[in-house]
Amino acid sequence: MSVKSIIVAGPVSAILLPWPVFGQETPPPPETPPQTQETPKPDKKPAPHISPFYFGVTGGSLGVGPEASYAINRYIGVRGNITFLNVSHDFHSGGLPYHGQAHLGSGGLMLDFRPFGGGFFISGGARLNKNKLRAKSTFNGVIVINGVTYTSTRTGTLLGYADFPAVAPTFTFGYAGTLRHGIKVGIEAGAMFMGSGRVYPFTNTGPNISPSRLEAQRAGLQREMDKYEVYPIVQLTAGYRF
Length: 242
Prior knowledge:
Blueprint: H1 3-16, E1 53-60, E2 63-71, E3 76-93, E4 96-113, E5 120-129, E6 132-137, E7 142-145, E8 148-151, H2 152-155, E9 158-163, E10 167-175, E11 182-193, E12 198-199, E13 203-204, H3 211-225, E14 230-241
Antiparallel strand pairs: 1-2, 1-14, 2-3, 3-4, 4-5, 4-6, 5-10, 6-9, 7-8, 9-12, 9-13, 10-11, 11-14
């Protein structure tokens, strides 16, 4: 090859090399994956801290006694209490005056539901009902029992006794304060469905009243008891949550 050919071929090659051969497709540039912009997640508010344990006292129509509860979470908790109270009351039944004594004693276990996660609650559960009633009739002078006239020297003293079914379904609602630690004061109202009490046969210290007339007295008191199958509940509470 002459020097002239080299001189001519050099520039021609420089011009032709950068261009693709005619008919040959140029490969597309590599695709860049689309960049997705992550949406920032909203900050989650931490669940409010609760103090699950509570201990205090309760007092009202059920009696007075200790109460304790445990909050499983903001909405559900369990609660139990034991209450005692003695009450006296004079009344008449079957034409006889009686001195009645009510010995209230019960223990309950309740499931508390706080629909708003605050102090308001609705509760359902049961109570072990140990309530008992005693009635005693003593009098001076003349008294009529089932159409028969007696004097105090012949009648002596009549004694009656009543109790109730052992388990009583209970439903209440109220306010007990928030679940944060500290002193709490609350109120609770509802009903204990204890059923009708059972009046046992009367006993008599005098010998001259026939069993049929004693049974008439017992039946009359039983009819009075049958009117009160639902016991109202109104309780005030005070305690500390921790």
